[in-house]
Design a protein that fits this description.
Blueprint (H helix, E strand, L loop, with lengths): L1 H17 L4 E2 H7 L1 H4 L4 H17 L5 E4 L5 E4 L14 H13 L3 H16 L26 H10 L3 E5 L8 E13 L2 E8 L4 E6 L3 E7 L11 H12 L3 E10 L4 H6 L2 E6 L2 E9 L2 H6 L5 E5 L1 H16 L1
Antiparallel strand pairs: 1-3, 2-3, 4-5, 4-8, 5-6, 6-7, 9-11, 9-12, 10-11
Helix pairs in contact: 1-4, 5-6
């Protein structure tokens, strides 16, 4: 059905762009097979009006012209629908090429490659990559979670979703009804920010904790969507980026380099351990759990308790 509509829109656009004069509905119906097959005049009129609106929404400039015999005609002038030349310098082209390499996920990789081909066909300069085939490091944003693609589409289309989510401190997953806002990648993990309908508040969900299939719902959002900057700050805050204090931990010597990079101070504690003072914010407990037996929380006591609870939940499966 989607392919049939796309073909119909393409045929209508070609007719409107290829004519030297306005075409009436009658002429368009006689020229496009899908319109010929319409069950009635009313069905054709509804189909044509929807298609015309869709083409205008896609950016096609369609003029409506009243004829001498009071017959309305439609025309898409080429000069009104001609895109300006692509004006990108070599550095901008290189930045786009680098961005296209970032996505590992197959669906996004194909879209990025196709976009580059279209830009180059329109005149974007080919940027030379001095590190092509020689770089030991290559930028990547992994998106391995099966929930990534349906959530990405739900964020784009503003569609509520339902999924089962397992909190780090819970033995079993619970069902969440969410109005998805955006996806953010933070420290190699993907997070969904959105409005939790059951709790009546904004929440952030780590995609790796979503179990089962993400189901979309055909309904409107009930809460306003904040601007992108606010959402990003929410994700960073819930993931532990925003520090509200400091924590003191013991870290096994030779382990936990990401923690060492953020440490405010480090000293040797003896017996193969170091003592670190690190920024403390929401989500730090979840991060510390990832280092397993290489980390021991000394203070604050609430952080130590949260880490212990998470470890016990993991041990219970």
């Amino acid at each position: 059905m989607a392919i049939a509509k796309a073909e119909r829109l393409m045929n209508l656009a070609l007719c409107l762009l290829g004519t030297g004069r306005p075409l009436s509905k009658r002429e368009l119906r006689a020229s496009i097979e899908a319109y010929m097959e319409a069950a009635s005049d009313d069905a054709f009129n509804r189909m044509f009006e929807r298609d015309k609106d869709d083409l205008r929404e896609l950016g096609l400039v369609i003029e409506t012209v009243e004829g001498l015999d009071n017959d309305t005609g439609y025309l898409a002038r080429r000069d009104s629908n001609r895109l300006p030349p692509v004006a990108l310098d070599a550095e901008e082209a290189a930045a786009l090429g680098l961005a296209a390499k970032v996505w590992q996920q197959a669906r996004l990789a194909g879209a990025a490659s196709g976009a580059l081909q279209k830009l180059r066909a329109a005149g974007m300069p080919l940027a030379e990559d001095p590190y092509e085939g020689h770089s030991a490091l290559e930028p990547r944003i992994p998106a391995h979670e099966s929930a990534f693609e349906p959530l990405m589409l739900a964020c784009r289309d503003r569609r509520p979703v339902v999924f089962d989510y397992r909190k780090a401190t819970a033995a079993r997953p619970g069902t969440r009804h969410v109005e998805p806002w955006t996806l953010e990648c933070w420290r190699g993990h993907w997070y969904l920010a959105g409005w939790d309908r059951d709790r009546g508040a904004e929440r952030v969900f780590r995609l790796s904790r979503i179990t089962g299939r993400v189901r979309s719902r055909a309904a409107a959002f009930t809460a306003p969507v904040p601007d992108h900057v606010t959402v990003r700050e929410t994700v960073e805050s819930w993931a532990g980026e925003t520090a509200t204090g400091t924590a003191r931990i013991r870290l096994r010597a030779g382990a936990g380099y990401p923690l060492r990079a953020r440490a405010l101070s480090t000293r040797a504690a003896g017996d193969g351990w170091d003592e670190l003072e690190i920024p403390y914010g929401h989500g730090l407990d979840a991060w510390l759990v990832e280092f397993g037996p290489d980390v021991v929380v000394l203070e604050p006591t609430e952080l130590r308790a949260d880490v212990v609870d998470r470890l016990r939940a993991v041990a219970k499966g």
